[in-house]
Amino acid sequence: MSTINLKRLAEELNLSASTVSRALRGSHEISQETKDRVKALAEKLGFQPNPHASSLRQSKSNTIAVVLPEIENNFFSQVMNGVEDVAQKKGYHVLIYLTHEAFAREKDILQVLRNGRVDGIMISVSNTTTSEEHLQEVNRSGLPLVFFDRIVESIDVPRVSTDDTDAAFKGTEHLVEKGCKRIALLSMSGLLSISSRRRNGYLNALKKYGMETDGLQVECGTDDETNRRLITALLQGPNPPDGIFAAVEKLAINTYEVCRQLGVKIPSQLKIISFSNLSVTALFDPPLTTIVQPAYEIGKEAAAVLFKIIQKKTLVPGEKKSVFPSHIVERASTGG
Amino acid sequence: MSTINLKRLAEELNLSASTVSRALRGSHEISQETKDRVKALAEKLGFQPNPHASSLRQSKSNTIAVVLPEIENNFFSQVMNGVEDVAQKKGYHVLIYLTHEAFAREKDILQVLRNGRVDGIMISVSNTTTSEEHLQEVNRSGLPLVFFDRIVESIDVPRVSTDDTDAAFKGTEHLVEKGCKRIALLSMSGLLSISSRRRNGYLNALKKYGMETDGLQVECGTDDETNRRLITALLQGPNPPDGIFAAVEKLAINTYEVCRQLGVKIPSQLKIISFSNLSVTALFDPPLTTIVQPAYEIGKEAAAVLFKIIQKKTLVPGEKKSVFPSHIVERASTGG
DNA sequence: CTGTTAGCGCGTTCAA
DNA sequence: TTGAACGCGCTAACAG
């Protein structure tokens, strides 16, 4: 850490610390000449005000926290990218916290953050989160909070998400249009609203086309081995599906693995569509049809909204609840 | 931010602030009874000491910075994962900064970090970094610094990397063993030591087997379109390669795209191996043989070394320069 | 074992 | 236009 501070800078210049402080912050009550002199020396010595002193004095950290389930997932890393871009432009710093989908960890993290370390929090909740008390407490404390992607419906906080119900509907419909008669849903177990929204989209579509769903909804978990067993059972059952709608990328991958093992041909025997932000799905065998979420934009928007709240600007209604459209990238896995 | 502080807590308990502070930090000079009483109330009120005041007083932020070229890359997100795990266990916070491979941004970030905001920095340098002055300055300032993956050889700072030369040698040799006679190298342009180490491994292997390299070394850049043109030219040239060694994942992907477009068959006409930490390369058409770096371990080790330096523990020689082995995952892209 | 005092470095009074 | 004094909240040195 640089041992140079305001006081030393002031001594060098034969000025008081307060004058130097004001000059550096561009105060209008300092003569241009002094400002120039101060800034020149500060630049020369590479002076940077001590952020802790500054934060303490101003009750403002210039830092935000991003709380994520995981980072080894293209969706979340794209979000981080968007967040970091906006933050860097605003001169903000970004703390990253990973919950690894563990409720206890999420609680701990939010607890620790309720002390002025950050000016605001962005969170995508873990899929094992069963209570919202920890989130309510943050909210009650007045610390700006924004949800993205995995939102908690019942908490009145700005949220940035995608049109999951609609996208799932269209994705399922896409399979119908491609001739599927029995479409299965692979989803992650848990209470996430995002899961139920995607399920609803799937159910709505099947209802519209009068198609069956019995025995076609499979709840998966975090363990690949277990998931592959479940999918194997589904495909080897008495009445197997001819189409699969995977609510998350991971499950499409498990499906590909199972199909390869069982010798099930995609798309002739089974068509697959999945939510995924992985661009290399284009190189899969066969290329995977995906529903792509605008992750980078979600990160940017969530950060932008958070900064607006931090700066106490009033949000327009669209910013309290912004919904970005996903889009389908059609590839061979749902081809003729 | 919680409006409750040490002083208020002390008043409630009829104790002095310093006693409360000591009690909360488990000082041995406080009676067990007082400790219990203090901790109970602190817990009840959800008291968290103000981190800025604490950091200011102790000249210690309990925060580290990770500076990365990008996060939308499995290697770096796995590293982040490792770092975050270690940091969370140590009670440290992690700031993330992305350079997007821009030298100017890297300089700015390091400049801003030289003021006590963090207790240490981990960095993987950008591929456009042409000077080391900004890194030397950090190092001279005494702020703990650790390089990972993309290291700067000439700066005497602990580093965590992989056996790139050796891995590239083995990767190239793998192509030779699979029958390739003309092996091309696709690498990223720039001054990164990691690039030259991988190139050296390639060259050593070809030398060992007395194979030609003329016209087979292609320097690529960040633009996919340009890279595909370069690769197309290589494959359509008078004397095309029958094997490709891609120094980074991105270039293997560009190669797959070009091969698909040109109708070049992998592996019969062209075999490919690439550095990559993307597990879904197993689902590529054909599955891609990869050289996998232990990214998570690199992140953990780099963080662990950084914490050791921060705590002024002396490093054993192996920690000043730790080298992790990569391993080849053989798949169909280099198959018979 | 506990309290008093002082100061980390800054930004903001209030005074000149 | 500038300076002196104060306090943000915490912890460490120094009493007792």
Q: Which oligomerization state do the chains in this entry correspond to?
A: homodimer
What's the CATH superfamily of the largest domain in chain A, by name?
Response regulator
Q: Give the helix level of chain A as a range of percent.
A: 40-55%
Give a short account of the largest sheet of chain A.
6 strands, parallel
What fraction strand of chain A? 15-25%
Q: Write the element-wise H/E pattern of chain A from the N-terminal end onward.
A: HHHHEHEHEHEEHEHEHEHEEHHEE
Which architecture of the largest domain in chain A per CATH? 3-Layer(aba) Sandwich
Question: How would you describe the overall organization of this protein?
Answer:
The structure is a homodimer of 336-residue chains. With 336 residues, chain A is an alpha/beta fold. Chain A folds into 3 domains: 6-49, Orthogonal Bundle (434 Repressor (Amino-terminal Domain)); 62-161 and 295-325, Rossmann fold; 164-293 and 328-334, Response regulator (Rossmann fold, 3-Layer(aba) Sandwich). Chain A has 13 helices and 12 strands. In chain A, the strands form 2 sheets. Chain A has a 6-stranded parallel beta sheet, with helices on both faces. The longest helix of chain A is centred in the first third of the chain and has 17 residues, at 74-90. Chain A is elongated, with a radius of gyration of 25 Å. The interface between A and B is large, with 54 and 54 residues. Chain A binds a DNA duplex (16 and 16 nucleotides) through helix 2 and helix 4.
